[in-house]
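User: What would this chain look like folded?
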Amino acid sequence: MSYEYAVIGGGIVGSCIAYGLTKYSRQVAVLDEGDIAFRASRGNFGLVWVQGKGWDYPAYADWTWQAAAAWPDLAAELLETSGIDVGLSQPGGIEMCLEDEELSSLEDKMRRISEHTDGGFHYEMLDHSSVLQRVPEISKEVAGACFCPHDGHVNPLLLFRALHQGMKQSGAEYLPNRKIEKIEFSGEEFRISGDFKDIHAARIILCAGLQNQVLGEMVGIRIPVIANRGQLLITEKVRPFLKYPTLHVRQTSEGGLQIGDSSEEVGLNDSTSNSVLSMLASRATRIFPMLENVQVVRAWAALRIMTPDGKPVYQESESCPGAFAIACHSGITLAAAHVGPVCQWIAKSKLNPLISQFSSDRFHV
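Assistant: Here's the prediction, encoded as structure tokens.
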């Protein structure tokens, strides 16, 4: 089987790339390892989140801000092509702080992001009484918060479904249960081998998360990535009270609460731990005392894909032209950027100036 583009990895990032590439070709294949893979897509928080990102890296601040601004167009496009409403809501987001020192540090980061985007990024620092006016259910422990009008959230499962539906309706072929063992480059095309019939492609795009490090070596791209475990709690449905998504708690459209924001480097271990889940529940109830008697119905963990500096990697191979690699942990927030500018770069060699700031070369100087 031969294709113009072979996207390796069928998670959120790979699905965005495959969907975006169908605008340039109907010869797109998605090779997906299947549910045995360590999928970050199955455990993400669903946030479209700008605040806090890129305070120490101007290009990332600008890239994230632009991606969030493009999200409404992507949601409308997916509704038209797939018939699925991904549940995008961008009322702004709030990051709650329980300590004055935490609030002061956050304000400094927000100021830097605004400077990096020439004032395009907007935020508002709130004291306790101002937060209380927006979210009356907070406790007296909340010292203050940052409100960012660019932030929001989506239903990640519906987004995943819409991307797959949209890319297949646009002609892409989804090939599950393809565990890749070898990639070879002849100078004109790539041959992808495994426990399946060989697949040939003019260009390949590695979107395989933690497997990118191994696959990248086959095409001359060094992609340093590590696993970072995040754990989540899901509660029973409660009355609507949280209009704004927060970094630690968000209320879904169905009424349940998602509680998270843990970070652990534990290798390829995607099991839950009582100590971390207890920490998440404790912080949530310190912010919202009303949650103390709310029942938890599910808990799980998933592995994020993290680069050494936490920023994305977008890289084309020098030794195997036509091989691209993408690695990031913000697949939801950056979805519109991946469907748009990143696919333009892959298909048309139209390199957005910001993309060039995320080469993996920065780790090898």
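The chain has three domains: 2-51+157-225+309-363, 93-149, 227-306. If you want, I can go into more detail on any region.
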